[in-house]
Amino acid sequence: MDNLSSVTTTLDAVAFDVDTAEGGRRRILHPLSLSLSQHRIAVIGANGSGKSTLLRLIAGLVAPTQGSLQLSPSGVRSGFIFANPQAQLIMPVVGEDIAFSMRRSISSASRRRARSREILDTMGLGERENSSIYDLSSGERQKVALAGVLAAEPELVLADEPTTLLDLRSTVEFTELLMGLQAPMIVATHDLQLAARAERVLVFEEGRLTADDAPAPAIARYREVAGA
Ligand SMILES: Nc1ncnc2c1ncn2[C@@H]1O[C@H](COP(=O)(O)OP(=O)(O)O)[C@@H](O)[C@H]1O
Ligand SMILES: [Mg+2]
Questions:
Q1: Nearest atom within ligand 1 for CA of residue 47
Q2: Distance 32 CA to ligand 1 centre (A)
Q3: 50 lines ligand 1 (CB under 6 A)
Q4: pLDDT, tens digit, for every residue of 169-193?
Q5: Backbone angles phi, psi at 72, to 5 degrees
Q6: Mean pLDDT across the stretch 29-53?
Q7: Is 52 a pocket residue for ligand 1 (Cβ < 6 Å)?
Q8: CATH number of the 1-77+154-228 domain
Q9: Do the Cβ atoms of 145 and 89 come closer than 8 Å?
Q10: What is the rounded CA–CA span in Å between residue 3 and residue 147?
Q11: Does the pLDDT at position 51 exceed 60?
């Protein structure tokens, strides 16, 4: 494929600590140096291994305690997809929610509406434009959340367990949407079929990167440490 945008995320000895309830500090990401530029990167590992922390650092939602992190080209816009779409749906009606994501980029309400319809159509949700977000299935809701993220035209998509709450059919459909995105994507997931579709897979264990490989060997490593 040509015409793919390219974004490089560079971490230079990035570490992240949090304050503990006892007044101490806990290191949840140990110093990590990496250069990420593949189109599809998956991050896997047990709960609490540091996957979300890595994504939040890349998104700029939190700053490293130590080290430096850079996205290139500078000023890259990233879009974040959470496990629970409820966390990012703001407006009560599907079309309005997506149009809301474009409030800064497109000034005309009718153009926002047209663009929102276009995005919904590409996701097979054209008929849901006027639906209440509360009437959607969880799979549809996650697609609407993705549509809202795409409406802002992110140059890098960060997805944190985007299929965790979906049933099998929705997972399959949603995976296809993710794989078809134009923008590069970094996805944290427990879904090994999704991870298997990545070009590069990072395995985290207790805040440390323990494998950085093609899907098959990386997933094998994860299975081995998980004893599964
Ligand atoms: N802001 C925070 N305050 C305290 N502990 C945190 C915070 N963020 C993450 N943690 C802890 O750091 C560890 C890694 O978290 P996280 O990155 O969410 O892991 P994962 O996404 O792999 O489940 C977990 O033990 C989590 O409880
Ligand atoms: Mg997480």
A1: 23
A2: 16
A3: yes
A4: 999 999 999 999 999 999 999 999 9
A5: -130, 135
A6: 97
A7: yes
A8: 3.40.50.300
A9: yes
A10: 21
A11: yes
